[in-house]
Structure formats: C-alpha cells, structure tokens
Amino acid sequence: MGNTPLYWSFESAAEGLQRRQLGFRTGPMVGRFDFAPSLTMPMQWRGWSFRPALTLRDTFYTEQGNPANSVTAADDILNRKSLEAAVELRPPALSRVFDRPWLGRKWKHVMEPRMKYDYVTGINNFAGILRFDATDVLTNTNEIEYSLVNRLYAKRLDPNAMDCDVAGMSTLTIGGVPQVGAVPWEAPRTRTPRPAPQVHERFLSWKSVRSIFSIPPLAMP
C-alpha cells in the first residue's frame, strides 16, 4: 500500500450450491456470496519472520438451517460477519549437512519452527449456517498453534566430478540465506564445469503440529 510496509489482498466468491443427503436437503440453488479483504504487515530481522494479519469476512446465504424442521432448509437469508486477527512468528531455521554420503547422495536436513496465534470473533449464528464446504465451518476461535516442519534434501553425487566438500566448512547452519560454499552443492568449482547433478528439493518433508485452545471468545451481539 503505497510506501508503507502494509500489503492488502482479498478473496471473493459468488456461488450457487445444493446439498442432498438422506434425511436432509436444501433448495435447488442456494446462493452464497463471500467477501474477505485482508491487511498484513510482514517483517524480517536476522532470519526472524513476523507477520500480523487482519481479515474481515462477510458471507451472505439465501437459505439457512431450520430449527423447526431438520429435514429441509429455511428459505430465509442469513448474513455471517467475522473478524480475524492472526500473528505468525517464524524463528530462524536450523539446518545440517551430513558429510558422509548415503545411497550415492549428499543429504541436508532443515528444521523450521513456526508459531501462530489466531483469534476469530463475531460468529453468533453458527447453528443456522448450512454446511457445504470449509467456508461454512468458520467459528469463533482463540488458539495458539506451534509446529515444526522438517525437510530432507538430497543431491546425487557425480563420481566423475571433483569432491564437493569444502575444507573447514561448518555443517551446521542457523537461519539466514546460505552463502556460496555454505553447503557442499553450492561450493565454487575450480575445474571445468560439468552438468550439475540433480537436486531433489523437498526429497521428504513432514510437519508436527500442536494446538493450545484457550477460553472461547465472547460472541459479538
């Protein structure tokens, strides 16, 4: 946004939906109009990443759940409004390059810790919202989530090329962008260049997630 560090974006959708299942059905065409503008301000400092975000969401339905009749939906409009505030923190990544090749490849392991606080409020009509997909299950939330992402990189070694190890190289790197020579496959070559061996980015990755729930926020009147 101009010369400020703020970024804005939005998501919008106009859809016609229908749901039929044993014991319940909606009308032949349920209108759902969704609009969600967001404002973010990403910041970085010495490998640390900090990103607060604010999102306003307004969703309009042409039908809603019928408390008096659980078989069909009520032909009444419903307007859902919500406010979401989120803060995401990513500390510097921790990486290690293994000196000993295995299965004809050089290996590198990267660990990326992440923490996020999410607060959603304003949804006081959840019982009347028809459920079609993930857009409709938004609820009041007060949650802290922390996770650890592990990535495993591999590079096939060229038996005809020079040794790519660097004397005195540290195999442990914390945060930041690795400089030339910081990892074996980025070391400068002194002999005639050969076609670079294939590097499998994200050869394997997995994520461990843990959420901490606190007292639900009060619904807006």
List the helices and strands and how they pair.
Blueprint: E1 7-17, E2 20-21, E3 24-25, E4 30-40, E5 43-45, E6 48-61, E7 78-90, E8 94-102, E9 105-121, E10 141-156, E11 172-174, E12 199-213
Antiparallel strand pairs: 1-4, 2-3, 4-6, 5-6, 6-7, 7-9, 8-9, 8-11, 9-10, 10-12
Keywords, separated by commas or semicolons:
221 residues; mainly beta; two-stranded antiparallel sheet; 12 strands; 52% strand; disordered C terminus
Compact overview of the structure:
It contains no helices and twelve strands. The protein has 221 residues and is mostly beta strands.
Commentary on this structure:
By secondary structure, the protein is an all-beta fold. It contains no helices and twelve strands. Strands 1, 4, 5, 6, 7, 8, 9, 10, 11 and 12 form a ten-stranded antiparallel sheet that branches. A two-stranded antiparallel ribbon has the order 2-3. A hairpin with a 2-residue loop joins β8 and β9. The model is unreliable at 162-173, 176-187 and 217-221 (pLDDT under 50).
Low-confidence stretches: 162-173, 176-187, 217-221
Which percent range fits the helix content? under 10%
Q: How many strands?
A: 12
Largest sheet: 10 strands, antiparallel
Q: What is the mean predicted local confidence, pLDDT?
A: 79
Number of helical stretches of at least 4 residues = 0
**SSE order, one letter for each helix or strand:** EEEEEEEEEEEE
Overall morphology? elongated
- Computed CA radius of gyration, to the nearest angstrom: 25 Å
Distance between termini?
Answer: 32 Å
Structural class: mainly beta
In terms of DSSP E residues, the strand content is over 45%
